[in-house]
Structures are given as structure tokens and as C-alpha cells.
Amino acid sequence: MAELLCVQTVEQLREQISAVRKRGLRIGCVPTMGALHAGHLSLVEAAKRETDFVIVTVFVNPTQFGPNEDFTRYPRPLEKDVNLCRQAGVDLVFHPEVETVYPAGSATYVEVPGLSAVLEGVYRPTHFRGVTTIVLKLFNMVLPDVAFFGAKDFQQQLLIRHMVHDLNVPVEIRTCPTLREPDGLAMSSRNVYLSPDERQTALALSRALKRACEESAAGRSLAEVRHSMQQFLAQQPGVKLDYATIVDATTLREIDEPVPQMVALIAARVGTTRLIDNMLIPPA
Amino acid sequence: MAELLCVQTVEQLREQISAVRKRGLRIGCVPTMGALHAGHLSLVEAAKRETDFVIVTVFVNPTQFGPNEDFTRYPRPLEKDVNLCRQAGVDLVFHPEVETVYPAGSATYVEVPGLSAVLEGVYRPTHFRGVTTIVLKLFNMVLPDVAFFGAKDFQQQLLIRHMVHDLNVPVEIRTCPTLREPDGLAMSSRNVYLSPDERQTALALSRALKRACEESAAGRSLAEVRHSMQQFLAQQPGVKLDYATIVDATTLREIDEPVPQMVALIAARVGTTRLIDNMLIPPA
Fold first, then answer.
1. Residue ranges of chain A whose CB lies within 8 Å of a chain B CB
2. Which residues of A carry out catalysis?
């Protein structure tokens, strides 16, 4: 098994990157908040297929959590994550301290207005500003050729694509499919918060999305499918819905008429855990 | 005389940069809005001393102009600029179209709160957002090792330093001294707007700054020096003062007690032309 480098400072990281660049290798980056699961590892697999040197960043980014969210509680199993990375053939894990990433006086942020204000942005108003800022910072630290994100965070990957395009960031973005448990639950680091009962309740999200795809394929209108999805979720005990809708996958605008790329998105709370999930609606 | 490359598209630019990088050359970048004067050329000289391949960008950036400012009127003597660059030994001029830099749908911006809201930010509320965004975009296009800015735009260079630091942008920033006409007027592309009479009136700015340095050296308090500078400018016919103050050069906070780095800054209108100037106040 190849050696796995673990670095904590930007200087150490830059030194390694510089050596890798001199060898002419293409760098792949998988930015994560740790608590790695099979979804993350599928991103690593994609990175290994497409690039020569795979860097996983592990950083629970405080600026993307709201004041009453789960920043403190978010799982941080670093040793386990490092072992998973080693087994997966990752070349380097970058796991900086908060003070390294945000030294005193840090103030600059990157914002994608419009796209950051809808859906998740309604419920987490400063979330995406935190996401785009940390992702740009990580790109500037890692200088990857390609970066890999999961489709589960659909709005996030779209915002990152827009940011990269708008700011001419020289990184290619890949979005990899959501991985699911055998019963359909989208993999998420936050699933560990769920009690066994909540774990069952949480299946409502993927079921509602699957129904939406089926109903759309059966010819029902988008308005009907959306309504049906919302009704289904409203009837699930223990599910507190934030939103369930169908939008244009390129603009995130709610649609009633079909467009080439459509996505159904759900956010809901189960107990104290907030979950999101989405599925692309195949064109009729 | 070495060949001067002129490119207009990001693709052409990236192709050239890639070839330069392969030769192991260090890239210096001088971002400008064109209408080059000796101040710009001193930045080119600094870039030539420190780097191997000097790129001048010429782009009148619409997003840093307010709705009632001089975007349309701003001088655009491209052929003259290219000739000046050729004579100065610049290696590449990048002069993109507005549509190349801001394709339809561009929305992302970079903001440095706090520092962007004071001084110029009071009179030009969206100016620095436009500046930091375009500079980051140009850095991502040019991928320079070092970038050179003039001290005349004091707040601008400070904001860019903060942005680069906060976002981990892998570019070193150099700030080069303001160049002045023999009579003291700070060189500026906007000086061409001045009538001969206004040109004389405009000398009040550099004179007020010089007096401030002298009075401070003579032991007067910063509050006295500031007041004297404001009084002097208020008495100059044809000068409409926006601000004249002394601030901490690292935080832009107005100061009454000396700090290690202090700068006196003035913004004023002479006729329809808005001028800025500044001088570092030597510590007592």
C-alpha cells in the first residue's frame, strides 16, 4: 500500500503540492468535512480514475454552519477517516485546524447571489457563503486540476460550478452520483445522529423522490407530482418538511413545465436531524 | 526588441501561460485599466526586475464603476498602450472584451467587508467589490507568481492584500510608490480630464499631503494635522473635498495617536474629475 501523507499546515501542503507538480502529475481533490462514508469513497474512486495524485481535505468548516446548527456536534472521527483514506489509496490527507484556515482577522468572502438564496439558502441563510468561500480557499491551497463533489448536495455543487465559472478558477468540477443505503437512504455523515426509529422515518425522503420520478414517468404534470410529493411527506409521522419541490436543475427555478434537466429536492427534519436528498427527474 | 504577444481570450492566454510555465519562468502581472502612464510603467519595471515574464492586463472593468461614474468616458487608447508596453519590454498584453470577462449570467463576487466600506467605500459603495472580484478573476486567468499595484490606490492595494491572504491566493502582492509629475500631482489616467486651470487647482491635494507630513514631522498632533489639512483644502477654490484624513495604514482606522504605519489620504473633486492621493506619514 502506498504511503499516505497527512499534513495540517498550508506550508506543508504547498511543499507537497509543489513536488507533485514538478513530477507532472494531475492533482485530484475531494473536499470533505470528514466522517467519511461510502459516498465520499466513491468520490475518491472517481478521483483516482481521473487524476494521478488524490488529496482528501478533512475540515469541518465553521462558516457554513448557522448559529443554531450542529457545528460542535458534527462527528470528527479523524483517525478512522485517515484509515479509510489509506485503504482507498488516497495520496494525501489535509486536515487543517480552524485557526490555520481562518486566522484572526479573516473577513473576505465569496458569494453567488441568487442561487445561494433559494431552497437551502432560505433555511440556512449564510450557509452557501461559507461553502463557496471555503471551497475557493481549499482550491487555492491544493491547486487541484479536478475536484469531486457529491450530487447529494445538489445546490452546493451547482453553486460551486457557478463560482468556478464566474471567477475563472482553473479547476474542473465533477459531480458524482449520490450513494444510497440498500433501503434507499442517501448516505450522509449526519445519518449517525438518527435513532433506529428515526432511521426508518428518514426513508420517507428517498421514497418521496422515487415516487416523484415514477409519477413523472407515468405522465403526471410537474405541479401534480410536486403536490403529491408534499402530501406524501406531510403524512409521514416524525417528518417535519422544510421544502419538497421540482426545479430546473441549471437555474434552481421552480418549474411547472418540463425542461431538459429537472431535479426534485427535499429538505426535512427527522427528530433533531436535518436531512436533504434529491433525484434527477428523467425527461418524459 | 522581444516580441510582444497580444491576446484577447482566456483560451489564448491560458495557452501562452502554460508554455511559459513549462519553461519554468516566474510570471509577473500588472493589472491595469489601460491609459498607461509612467506610474504603470514603473510597475512594469518592478515586474521585470522580479519576474521572468511580464503580463500587463488592460481592462476597463465595468463592475468597479458606479452608475454615475466615468466608465463610458474612461480613456481607452489601446494602440498607444500596446506600444508603451512593447517599448517597456512587456512580454504579453491581455486585453479582453467585457463579454469575455463577464459572460451572461456572471454573478459571483468577492467582498472584503469593513475595509471596503470606509473612505472610498463611502463615496463609491460598490467600487471595491468590483475591484476584488476582477483582480481575483485576473489572477485566476493569468496565474501570476507576483502582481504589482500602485500605492496611489492605497485602499485598493490594502484590500487586495487582505483578499489574497484571506482566500489563500497563491500570488505575492507588491505595492510600488506613487509616481508624481514634477509639480507633485500624482500620476493618474484621470488627469487627462483636467483643464489647464483644473490641473493647477489639483495641486492642492499633493500640497496638502506634503504639509501634513511636514506638520507631523514638526511635532503637531495628528488631530491638528488632520484639521489643518482639511482647512487648507476647504480654502482652495475649485476643490470639493470628499475626505482628508489620517488613518492607520494597516486597518484604515482614523487615528489621533501615532501608530507604526500611518497614511494621510485625500479624495476631492476638481471640476467633474474625482481625484485621490495619499502619502505615508513618517513616524515621529
1. 10, 14, 106-115, 132-133, 136-137, 140-141, 143, 162-163, 166-170
2. 40
Please tell me the distance in Å from A142's CA to the nearest CA on chain B. 10
Check pLDDT > 90 for residue A283: no
Residue A169 with chain B: CB contacts under 8 Å: 140
Contacts of B5 (CB under 8 A, 6+ apart): B16, B91, B92, B93
pTM of the model: 0.96
Whether residues A13 and A68 share a domain: the answer is yes
Looking at chain B, which residue has its C-alpha nearest residue A108? Answer: B112
Distance from C-alpha of B39 to C-alpha of B49, rounded to nearest angstrom? 16
The domain that holds B243 is classified in CATH as 3.30.1300.10
Residue B40 falls in the annotated catalytic set: yes
How many residue contacts between A and B have a Cβ separation below 8 Å? 66
Alpha helix positions (H), A103-190 = 120-123, 127-142, 154-166
Please tell me the predicted confidence (pLDDT) of residue A204: 98
For residue A230, the model assigns a pLDDT of: 98
Percentage of chain A beyond pLDDT 90 is 98
What's the mean pLDDT in B154-158?
Answer: 98
Q: Are residues B146 and B204 in the same domain?
A: no
Q: Which residue, of B149, B176, B203, is where some domain finishes?
A: B176
Q: Which of B37, B40, B165, B227 is labelled catalytic?
A: B40
- Distance (Å, rounded) from C-alpha A281 to C-alpha B258? 65
Range of the domain at B42: 5-176
Residue of A281, A275, A31, A13 whose CA lies nearest to A164: A31
Question: Which of A109, A114, A136 lies closest to B107 in CB terms?
Answer: A114
* Interchain contact, B10 vs A168, CB within 8 Å: yes
Whether residue B228 is found in the same domain as residue B172: no
C-beta separation of B130 from B63 below 8 A: yes
User: Looking at residue A284, what is its pLDDT?
Assistant: 72
Could you give the percent of chain B with pLDDT greater than 90?
Answer: 98
